[in-house]
Specification:
alpha/beta; six-stranded parallel β-sheet; Rossmann fold; 11 strands; 289 residues
């Protein structure tokens, strides 16, 4: 007996359809949602990510601005670019693609983005709001995971959840989102002792290590009918994979997300959702999810 695949492509499509409808509603009120991206340098992976985001925006009717400063841009000039986008009333969302080239301060740059235009949810202001349960623009990958669980009507109330990631992008914000759903959360990382035991005692395991040489989540690490969300992306044996082998995990889990086709599409979908939320709020309109 096998479990149910959590299909990120299906959930993302559902989110995009709602976003597209909201874009039409906002446009009828004279609001044309616009996302500005900043890609510093020519990192191939980052170029692909930004290109996919622009393509997704086009699909739902969101206008985009594509800013591509050279790798040798100074911090001062990068700050000036961010300031100009902050001041541009036609721009509703600003996305600074990370990582930045060496020599540039990521915290300084992301912190400079106005919180109401921070569609990545990474400014100290928005991180603080998230931590006290009042966040509106939330980090895309963690909020995408919650969206997937909601779509499949997987309750988090009272569930024991192990999150194997403590990054600012995924693990830390996800901790708060899970707590707000009344889950009991254990955040695990490279220094965690008895990781296998923690996973086996968890109803839900969310893993995001992204290095198969250091960690692989195997079926003997989860209990029967556990729920597994694989956030990681890594190249292993010539293929794009996560921290686990889906075919192995799904034979024991009640629900599991694959890689690719799981969390990845949700990250972009939630970016679109954040952009229309920011556009609506810029005019004092509160759109419901």
């Amino acid at each position: 007996m096998t479990g149910t695949k959590i299909d990120g492509l299906e959930v993302a499509k559902n989110v995009k359809e709602k976003v597209s409808e909201t874009v039409k509603q906002l446009s009828s009120q004279g609001i044309k949602p616009c996302l500005a991206t900043i890609l510093v340098g020519d990192n191939p992976a980052s170029q692909t990510y930004v290109r996919n985001k622009h393509r997704a925006c086009e699909e739902v009717g969101i206008i985009t601005q594509d800013h591509k400063p050279a790798e040798d841009i100074t911090q001062e000039k990068l700050n000036e670019l961010i300031d100009s986008l902050n001041e541009d009333s036609m721009v509703h969302g600003i996305l600074l693609q990370l990582p930045l080239p060496s020599g540039l301060n990521e915290f300084e740059a992301t912190s400079r983005i106005l919180p109401e235009k921070d569609v990545d949810g990474l400014t100290p202001h928005n991180v603080g709001l998230l931590s006290i349960g009042t966040g509106i623009l939330k980090p895309c990958t963690p909020s995408g995971i919650i969206e997937m669980l909601d779509y499949y009507k997987i309750s988090l109330e009272g569930k024991n959840v192990a999150v194997i990631n403590r990054s600012n992008l995924v693990g830390k914000p996800l901790y708060h989102l899970l707590l707000q759903k009344n889950a009991t959360v254990v955040t695990c990382h490279s220094r965690t002792h008895n990781l296998k035991e923690i996973c086996k005692n968890s109803d839900i395991v969310i893993t995001g290590v992204g290095n198969r040489d250091k960690f692989t989540l195997t079926s003997d690490m989860i209990k029967e009918n556990a729920i597994v969300i694989d956030v990681a992306t890594t190249h292993h044996d010539g293929k794009l994979k996560g921290d686990s082998d889906f075919d192995e995990i799904i034979s024991k889990a009640s629900y599991a997300s694959p890689v690719p086709g799981g969390v990845g599409p949700m990250t972009v979908a939630m970016l679109l959702k954040n952009t229309i939320t920011a556009a609506a709020l810029s005019k004092g309109i509160d759109i419901k999810s």
